[in-house]
Specification:
The protein is of the alpha+beta class. The chain has 4 helices and 4 strands, in the order H-H-H-E-E-H-E-E. The longest helix is centred in the N-terminal third of the chain and has 14 residues. InterPro entries: H-NOX_domain_sf, Heme_NO-bd, NO_sig/Golgi_transp_ligand-bd.
Amino acid sequence: MKGLTFTEFVEVVEQVFGKKAFKTLIERIENLPISTGDINNSIDFIQYVETLPTVEFISMSSTQFIIDYRSPRCMGHVCLDLIKGCATHFKEYIAVDMVPVDKWGSHMRFTIDKR
């Protein structure tokens, strides 16, 4: 089963470049000589990833919390989707504001307001 983020990526690529271009992209990725070493369990995988994102809670109240998200891979939009997905899962209504803290996008600040 494909994740929501990947599914949305597939839809965007297919809309912008066409289904044939997406199929070609996948075929090229599958043929890349990528070595993951000896990954046999979650500990091995975490050590392979090396640089995990970090989340720091800046402030929290009953209706709002602010977090800083840092990722050397600049995946703030993935974090945003995870926050929204959590709210959907728990049937909560929230407003999320995502602001880049640095010019590279590796440090994002999220303000989450419960409604």
